Amino acid sequence: MAAVASRGPAGLSPRSTIQGRPRITSTTGNPCARCGRKIPRVAVTWPEGRLCNICYYNAVHTRGVCPECLQDRLLPGPASAGGGPICATCAEIPHDFHCDSCDTEAGHHRGRLCARCALRADLHQVLGGEPEHPALRGLVDALCASERPESILVWKRSPKVQTLLRGLGDGTIPISHEGLDAVPGKPTEHIRALLQHHGLLPYRDAYLHRFEEWIAVKLEGLPAEVRQPVQHFATWHHLRNIRAKSEAGANTRGPVHSAKQEITETVKFLTWLHQTHHRTAATCTQQDADEWLAGGPTTRTMIRNFFQLAKKSRLNTGVTVAHRTPRSSPSLSQEQRLAWIRELLTGTSESLPYRVAGMLLLLYAQPLVKVVTLTTEAIAESPHGMRIQLGRHPVDVPEPFANMIRQHRDARPNLRTAAGTDSPWMFPSILAGRHLHPNTVMDRLRALGVNLLGARNSALGELVLQCPPSLVADALGYSHHVAFLHAEKSAEPWARYAARHAGDQR
User: Fold this and answer.
1) Residue 106 has what DSSP assignment?
2) Contact between 263 and 234 (Cβ < 8 Å)
3) Does residue 399 fall inside a structural domain?
């Protein structure tokens, strides 16, 4: 019987993981001397023959020790009989690759200038000359130090980038957070992140700053009966707490998101109360609150914290909103979970960084908001294998997942920009010094077909059946309360089975 091809997990929606443009081939013309493809356009002709653009680019971007003359230099030549590519001299390539400006041996980007020197010249031109401001000098140095300056040369062609750089150069845009705030956009945030990453601009919590602006916009146009209690709730409760978290170095993305939801629901409730019953937060009754909660979605229970604060401040002591407990929680069967683990380990339905993130969710029940904040220091190698720090103490990483992590760690994306290769994050962002936004990973895994909450619940439920819940909580960074709740839920099916089995035997 013919073998049946294994299919992916239910709901799998793979995406193309092929990077870069497809190689252009031709049915006519001479083949490239290195890759053998027939090429419509020749990049260069060297002693070995004609080279296509891709092979030429790779040749003039390869450095190392020449196996023939043992000198450390550019290695544009073909591979030697006993090793890797050789230098231009040993390959008898009749071309001097030294840059006229910095004398570095590299591929020429413009005339006889290397890409870094061409980039520096272009930046000086758009900035109105070599900058005097220390922050701008540092910015130019950071951009030119990029591992792939060709990408920066393409980036700076954008009219928005040109306008921003000219404004910074002539002083019409001050080199400060306030100055950059006046010209919002992706190029601005990229420049801001670079300046902060390289210590050229003081750090500012982006989530906190946007939350402060959001509050001001949210309160605009509200009647005083609604605006005043909401403003007190937003500033004295949420904003104060989030500022304290920010000063302590904690990530404020989650707290800001929750605060926005609570403030939004409070505005909706107080607006309804004012328009429907002509009452305020101070005169609201329990019946009003119950009517509101019963007439809409469960998100309405997010007014609970507002009324808790109202009790403390003596604004309203007569209304109580109970804590909402979800009636059910999604989960995957163990068969579904194992199918997704198999797909992420061996499949090609998603690129490596997102497969690693998904495995951390499926194996260790790690929330993706926590996964994106993992650093390379959390990974430890020893003769006994790999361990990863997710909670109070490190846990073992089994093969072949350990090898996946190594491959990802050693070839993390978004490190060839001006941010440099020293990013501590396992999942670095395109913005210097930052990690990927959790929504980026969530969206990719959801699009793939993974039920994120179901995967986390199933992973945690399986783990607390195998080990004491308190040990699982400490190892994975959960509270003991949450771990024991999942242990109780995971044990329920077995308890029902035992009860039925005992009844059948009577």
Assistant:
1) -
2) yes
3) yes
Percent helix, percent strand, percent coil in the chain, to nearest 5 = 50, 10, 40
Q: Residue 469 and residue 486: Cα distance in Å, rounded?
A: 8
Amino acid at 259: A
CA distance 330 to 341: 18
pLDDT in tens, 322-334: 987 766 678 888 9
Is 356 found in the same domain as 258? no
Q: At what angle do helices 452-466 and 438-448 cross, to 10 degrees?
A: 90
pTM for the model: 0.78
Residue 118 CB contacts under 8 Å (≥ 6 apart), including other chains: 109, 110, 149, 153
Residues of the chain with pLDDT under 70: 1-7, 16-28, 326-328, 417-420, 491-506
Same domain, 128 and 180: yes
Tokens 């010249």 — which residue?
A: 121
One domain, residues 87 and 145: no
* Pairing of the two strands 49-51 and 63-65: unpaired
Instruction: Quote the distance between the C-alpha of residue 119 and its chain's center.
Output: 28
Taking only the tens place, the pLDDT of each residue in 20-76 is 555 555 566 789 999 988 888 889 999 999 999 899 999 999 999 999 999 999 999
Q: 409 lies in which domain range?
A: 334-453
Same domain, 128 and 234: no
- Provide CB contacts within 8 A for 284, sequence distance 6+: 273, 316, 319
